[in-house]
């Protein structure tokens, strides 16, 4: 398999590491003073363990650790391995970001 | 009181032997060189500071830092892309701490880390250099894809390397430079020498100029 | 000019080379007298270069350009092997990669290579081949008795017969069966040759160099694309090397020579001969095996034997040709029965005539070419048996005896055909004298590469074969491989595909005109099986037509079941010859169509690939890359013993003269540190520069404890969890400046931790302004420990440096000046529990640092120590490490629960609070001492309550880290034990069923030595 890193261009699979589903978002389960919210464990349980077993297009996290060390979001068909899109993680590089990941 | 001296030792001090390796007959197809006496600093732009970093680099070395995988030769320094909004500054001469002068150049716009001891610099050229590198690198080094000045952050033998193509050697053959982690240098040197052995290898050591 | 007139008009009758002495071109030193079946002219062999070789010890001679098989044919050798199961005598069947019979052991000694196809082995001078699977000799094989019992050795026989008692299967039956049924033997010695892997890149990969492949390469090359032309054979041409005919009005040989000249002149075409493309992988990556030096006895110095290529191609034109299909009739496996196309190859390419009276059995027009080729070469055609009953129009001019019907028996000896029996539609039989029966059952397009991504081949009635279905992205199949068999179609399709692929890659040049050839019609009427005796479908695995029918009767109707029950297609040829015949027979038996019956799943590799080639450079000392510490060579020169820690080689201990074992060395090192001073290279710890205005907040979210409030010039121990709440990694992090932390990880987690940190930076918290760089390799770091540490450092540091408790307190960090003009980072941290510092200098000064530490500590007897002593001292101090940070423990299990901040979010916080992770009966870290102080503890021993029967329900934990404590004078351990903290003082059992040990031990505090910690705070 080859992944087109948005920074490095197309590279062979061996330069990348797979993490998994990019869909789960880390919950904001703590108040400003650090106090744990009642639903924190449930939210984190979903975030840590619950995954869809997608047959088809899936967004995934890949790490170009054997290259530019950028985290990537890859849209890949799990049945054909066709890669439809590759994007850099919001915090790759030095652009200024808000919490939501948008450029400010 | 005993005398204390601080001699620089190459990570290739055991692996390196000057002269001919591999195929002994005919012209050596590969020139394999350890490049010594350099300083190397990792420059990483802070968030929102990319333009300021570029401006500072331009002022210091007369060139903009690479925005894509490339190695840019400036006045007294080569700037080598290592990742988005980050690059190496490679300069000739070994100094105990190359960071302070760069801190002056970049102010607070970039985070700087000395990597002079963290990398070993190896250069390969020769008539068979692409054939030898094809055994270790998955990067396409064809002229049309990887011309002079092109760079890649990539892996060789599961080891991260920064590879770039400098000006062609005096004999007209392409020349590729490799920065490899110091601890992997001994291993990689052997791997390169093995890959090149069938073409005949001439090993040398020269300071970065 | 029609083809028939060529035969009668142009072709001079050729004589057999029966009297080699008459050939004055032969050098005198070597006799070619054995080549009884060599034609005296023609072929692409070099008669001026005779090559001596042996087969089963018999000396023979062939010519440069021969394969081993063609040389055997030229020498009149028919019997070349014994079959897998019945030990039936077998001859050369094909002239290519699909050969199932002519498998030999090549070379000798450590280079012995079993199961090598004689048909693809280029002959070299001195080649020595042995036949396989026979004893005592190929002619007289005692195991051929199996053949007498063949009626009972049917598919599934072993499984049915040797079922009971089941336990004897593995011990008795299977080994005995494997001995009887087998192929060649590997040498068992390490392969003295080397192999390597390499990458290649192109716009257009052309697989195969027959007419379609050459046309494709020329078109793409002329258009300007980067082309790789891969050919399995040693020379280009494919079937053109074996066939007569014309292209662009020239004889094929002449056209081929011109095409090769043009290809050589195009710098953008890279020709890779002896290179078989065996697989296609995602993203247009193709696997290919180049047999660099299989054609010489021993590879030249520094050259690999084989090279495994990964070819990255934007487009691929697969012109892999087609494979002729055997006919399934009684006696079809007797030596002397050969594929019709192979007969043509031996005649036309190798000038070797497989028989003096060649008979042809065909069900299609193409087979007739063989009769034509035999006659053109001056040979005799005994008869043509065409199951369709009539000669195709274009061959009506051939003066050969035509018989309608089928071959129903093949008579002869162990190594020859003497006659065949032909049965017509009415059941009347006649006998034909022949010594070589050529058979043609049609052609199977070589669809393998199109099917490796689950593309299902599609049945085509017009060619009675499967044609490619959906190809992987970027691939097209052309010519015979796509089911279009005529020369004209091959040339046309190849050219068009080459041009299209080049254009798709952006090439702008002109592809020129497609070469033109004969548009002959391929006509076939399938004949799947001739009844009347043992008719083989899979030659190598001895699967017969009746085995296929038996499988159907027993319910194994699915093609995948058929394959596994009968082993059809599972031999080294992977069903290249047999699969379609097997499927057709199954279709017949089930009443389904062949298309509905379908094919088995195709999987790479298409061609055999040596494991050595897959390993490439990575064997022996190069099994994996290695990492050396900055003081490695210094330590090696002192005789250090190294241990592999991941990729690192670390000094484990430094033996000195007279020490009898490692324990003595390690004990000496520990005592030297505890009583004086020692140092250890700890550069392998992962080191990360965390910089930027938000570095402190970033670390707060990463660690269970807080770092944003760490003062500049201070270090703090930190613990990271995984998001599931279990411990991930630990280490000391120092704040070197307001916006600069220096973080350390364990050696093992250095790489993964960096990945984790980048994930947090780039994915989880992109709003933080923080930059990360690994500086693991930048810093040579040494731990200096022992009561004399400060004295040593006073010698090393500039006199102006204040190293007193006040000037440099515990957990303090700062840059210091060293004598001789060096700056270093000094950290007052301790892993050993002693007064200790870590000192860091850029790695290029690491070796000088080791030497200077020896110099500075000489008066105190400074002792370098290795990882074992380091480990002993951390166990004595109860510090956790890898065996305790093992992915099952929580911070509290390790006694570090109090570090968990409640004032902030951090990775793992929420999940760490789960019921099971905070349960009171969790196994926690304790110390263990043997009750009998002379007992040796063993890591992995289970903790069982006294009086309880050992078992899962009474298991309360286990010993994680064990050492002999020089300070206590007995063995000690750390362990994870249920409710361990409440049980200090309790006596339990350390039960080790692996070693048969069972002893009483005491649960203690994990801190065995200096529990107050006074020494390190000195």
UniProtKB/TrEMBL annotation, chain A:
Pfam families: SoxD (PF04267)
Record protein name field: Sarcosine oxidase subunit delta
Organism: Mesorhizobium retamae
From TrEMBL, chain B:
Origin superkingdom: Bacteria
Species this chain originates from: Mesorhizobium retamae
Signal sequence, start to end: none
Designated name of the protein: Sarcosine oxidase subunit gamma
Residues annotated as transmembrane: none
InterPro entries documented for this protein: SoxG, TrmE/GcvT-like
UniProtKB/TrEMBL annotation, chain C:
Region (Disordered): 1-50
InterPro entries to which the protein is assigned, alphabetical: 2Fe-2S-bd_N, BFD-like_2Fe2S-bd_dom_sf, FAD/NAD-bd_sf, GcvT/YgfZ/DmdA, GcvT/YgfZ_C, GcvT_C, GCVT_N, Sarcosine_oxidase_asu
Domain SoxA A3: 533-616
Keywords carried by this UniProt record: Oxidoreductase
Domain GCVT N-terminal: 632-904
All residue ranges annotated as the Aminomethyltransferase C-terminal domain in the record: 925-1010
Family, as annotated: Belongs to the GcvT family.
Pfam families linked to this entry: FAD_oxidored (PF12831), Fer2_4 (PF13510), GCV_T (PF01571), GCV_T_C (PF08669), SO_alpha_A3 (PF17806)
Coiled-coil spans in chain: none
Protein species of origin: Mesorhizobium retamae
Name of the featured protein: Sarcosine oxidase subunit alpha
Biased composition range(s): Polar residues: 27-43
């Amino acid at each position: 398999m080859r992944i087109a890193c948005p920074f490095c261009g197309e590279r062979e699979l061996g330069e990348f590491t797979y993490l998994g589903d990019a869909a789960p978002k880390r919950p904001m389960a703590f108040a400003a003073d650090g106090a744990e919210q009642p639903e924190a464990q449930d939210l984190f349980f979903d975030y840590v363990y619950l995954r869809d077993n997608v047959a088809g297009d899936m967004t995934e996290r890949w790490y170009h650790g054997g290259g530019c060390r950028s985290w990537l979001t890859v849209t890949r068909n799990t049945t054909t391995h066709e890669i439809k899109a590759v994007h850099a993680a919001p915090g790759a590089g030095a652009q200024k970001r808000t919490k939501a990941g948008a450029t400010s | 009181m005993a005398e204390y001296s601080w001699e620089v030792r190459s990570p290739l001090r055991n692996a390196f032997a000057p002269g001919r390796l591999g195929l002994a007959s005919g012209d050596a197809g590969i020139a394999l060189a350890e490049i010594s006496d350099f300083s190397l600093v990792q420059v990483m732009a802070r968030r929102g500071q990319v333009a300021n970093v570029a401006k500072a680099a331009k002022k210091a070395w007369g060139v903009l830092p690479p925005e894509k995988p490339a190695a840019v030769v400036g006045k007294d320094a080569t700037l080598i892309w290592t990742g988005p909004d980050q690059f190496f500054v490679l300069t000739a001469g070994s100094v105990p701490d190359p960071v302070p002068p760069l801190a002056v150049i970049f102010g607070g716009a970039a985070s700087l880390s000395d990597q002079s001891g963290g990398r070993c610099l190896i250069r390969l050229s020769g008539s068979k250099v692409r054939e030898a590198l094809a055994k270790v690198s998955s990067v396409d080094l064809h002229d049309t894809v990887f011309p002079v000045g092109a760079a890649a952050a990539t892996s060789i033998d599961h080891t991260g390397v920064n590879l770039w193509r400098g000006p062609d050697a005096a004999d007209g053959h392409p020349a590729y430079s490799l920065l490899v982690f110091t601890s992997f240098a001994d291993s990689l040197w052997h791997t390169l020498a093995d890959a090149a052995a069938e073409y005949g290898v001439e090993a040398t050591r020269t300071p970065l100029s | 000019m029609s083809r028939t007139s060529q035969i009668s008009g142009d072709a001079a009758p050729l004589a057999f080379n029966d009297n080699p002495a008459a050939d004055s071109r032969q050098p005198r030193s070597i006799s070619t007298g054995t080549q009884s079946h060599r034609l005296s002219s023609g072929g692409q062999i070099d008669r001026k270069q005779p090559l001596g070789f042996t087969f089963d010890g018999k000396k023979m001679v062939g010519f440069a350009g021969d394969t081993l098989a063609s040389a055997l044919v030229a020498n009149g050798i028919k019997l070349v092997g014994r079959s897998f199961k019945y030990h039936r005598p077998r001859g050369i069947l094909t002239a290519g990669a699909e050969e199932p019979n002519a498998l030999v052991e090549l070379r000798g000694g450590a280079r012995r290579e079993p199961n090598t196809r004689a048909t693809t082995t280029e002959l070299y001078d001195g080649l020595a081949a042995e036949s396989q699977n026979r004893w005592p000799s190929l002619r007289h094989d005692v195991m051929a008795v199996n053949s007498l019992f063949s009626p009972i050795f049917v598919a599934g026989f072993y499984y049915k017969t040797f079922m009971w008692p089941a336990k004897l299967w593995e011990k008795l039956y299977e080994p005995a069966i494997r001995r009887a049924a087998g192929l060649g033997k590997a040498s068992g010695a390490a392969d003295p040759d080397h192999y390597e892997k390499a990458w290649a890149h192109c716009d257009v990969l052309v697989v195969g160099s027959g007419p379609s492949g050459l046309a494709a390469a020329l078109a793409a090359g002329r258009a300007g694309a980067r082309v790789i032309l891969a050919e399995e054979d040693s020379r280009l041409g494919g079937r053109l090397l074996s066939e007569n005919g014309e292209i662009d009005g020239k004889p094929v040989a002449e056209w081929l020579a011109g095409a090769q000249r043009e290809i050589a002149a195009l710098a953008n075409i890279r020709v890779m001969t002896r290179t078989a493309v065996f697989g296609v992988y995602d993203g247009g990556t193709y696997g290919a095996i180049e047999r660099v030096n299989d054609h010489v006895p021993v590879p030249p110095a520094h050259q690999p034997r084989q090279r495994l290529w990964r070819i990255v191609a934007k487009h691929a034109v697969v012109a892999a040709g087609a494979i002729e299909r055997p006919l399934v009739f009684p006696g079809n496996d007797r030596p002397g029965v050969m594929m019709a196309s192979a007969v043509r190859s031996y005649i036309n390419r190798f000038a070797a005539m497989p028989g003096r009276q060649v008979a042809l059995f065909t069900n299609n027009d193409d087979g007739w070419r063989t009769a034509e080729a035999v006659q053109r070469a001056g040979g005799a055609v005994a008869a043509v048996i065409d199951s369709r009953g009539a000669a195709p129009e274009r061959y009506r001019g051939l003066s050969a005896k035509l018989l309608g019907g089928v071959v129903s028996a093949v008579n002869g000896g162990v190594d020859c055909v003497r006659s065949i029996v032909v049965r017509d539609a009415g059941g009347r039989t006649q006998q034909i004298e022949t010594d070589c029966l050529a058979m043609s059952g049609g052609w199977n397009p070589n669809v393998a590469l199109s099917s490796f991504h689950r593309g299902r081949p599609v049945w085509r009635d017009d060619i009675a074969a499967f044609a490619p279905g959906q190809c992987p992205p970027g691939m097209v199949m052309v010519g015979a491989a796509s089911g279009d068999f005529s020369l004209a179609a091959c040339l046309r399709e190849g050219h068009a595909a080459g041009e299209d692929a080049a254009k798709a890659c952006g090439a702008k040049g002109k592809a020129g005109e497609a070469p033109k050839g004969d548009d002959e019609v391929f006509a076939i009427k399938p004949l799947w099986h001739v009844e009347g005796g043992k008719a083989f479908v899979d030659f190598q695995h001895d699967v017969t037509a009746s085995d296929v029918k038996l499988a159907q009767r027993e319910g194994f109707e699915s093609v995948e079941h058929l394959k596994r029950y009968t082993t059809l297609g599972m031999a080294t040829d992977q069903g290249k010859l047999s699969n379609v015949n097997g499927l057709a027979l199954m279709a017949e038996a089930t009443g389904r169509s062949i298309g509905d019956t379908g094919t088995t799943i195709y999987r790479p590799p298409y061609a055999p690939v040596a494991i050595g080639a897959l390993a490439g450079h990575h064997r022996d000392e190069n099994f994996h890359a290695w990492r050396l510490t900055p003081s490695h060579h210094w330590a090696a020169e002192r005789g250090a013993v190294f241990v592999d820690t991941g990729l690192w080689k670390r000094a484990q201990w430094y033996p000195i003269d007279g020490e009898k074992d490692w324990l003595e060395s390690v004990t000496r090192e520990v005592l030297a540190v505890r009583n004086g001073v020692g140092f250890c290279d700890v550069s392998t710890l992962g080191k990360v520069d965390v910089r930027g205005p938000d570095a402190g907040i970033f670390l707060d979210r990463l660690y269970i404890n807080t770092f944003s409030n760490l003062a500049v010039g201070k270090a703090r121990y930190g613990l990271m969890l995984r998001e599931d709440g279990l411990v991930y990694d630990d280490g000391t992090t120092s704040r070197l400046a307001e916006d600069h932390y220096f973080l350390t990880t364990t050696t093992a987690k250095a790489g993964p931790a960096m990945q984790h940190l980048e994930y947090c930076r780039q994915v989880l918290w992109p709003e933080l302004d923080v930059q990360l760089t690994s500086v693991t390799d930048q810093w040579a770091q040494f731990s200096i420990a022992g009561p004399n540490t400060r004295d040593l450092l006073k010698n090393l540091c500039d006199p102006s440096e204040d190293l007193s408790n006040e000037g440099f307190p515990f957990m303090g960090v700062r840059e210091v000046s060293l004598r001789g003009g060096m700056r270093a980072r000094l950290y007052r941290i301790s892993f050993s529990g002693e007064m200790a510092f870590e000192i860091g200098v850029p790695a290029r000064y690491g070796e000088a640092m080791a030497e200077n530490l020896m110099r500075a500590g000489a008066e105190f007897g400074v002792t370098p120590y290795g990882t074992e002593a380091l480990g002993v001292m951390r166990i004595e101090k109860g510090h956790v490490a890898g065996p305790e940070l093992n992915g099952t423990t929580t911070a509290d299990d390790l006694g570090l629960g109090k570090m968990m901040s409640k004032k902030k979010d951090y990775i793992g916080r929420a999940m760490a609070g789960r019921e099971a992770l905070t349960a009171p009966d969790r196994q926690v870290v304790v110390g263990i001492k043997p009750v009998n102080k002379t007992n040796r503890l063993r890591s992995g021993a289970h903790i069982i309550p006294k009086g309880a029967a050992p078992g899962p329900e009474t298991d309360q934990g286990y010993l994680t880290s064990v050492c002999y404590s020089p300070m206590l004078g007995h063995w000690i351990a750390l362990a994870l034990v249920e409710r361990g903290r409440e049980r200090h003082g309790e006596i339990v059992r350390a039960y080790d069923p692996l070693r048969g040990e069972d002893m009483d031990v005491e649960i203690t505090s994990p801190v065995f030595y200096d529990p107050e910690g006074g020494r390190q705070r000195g």
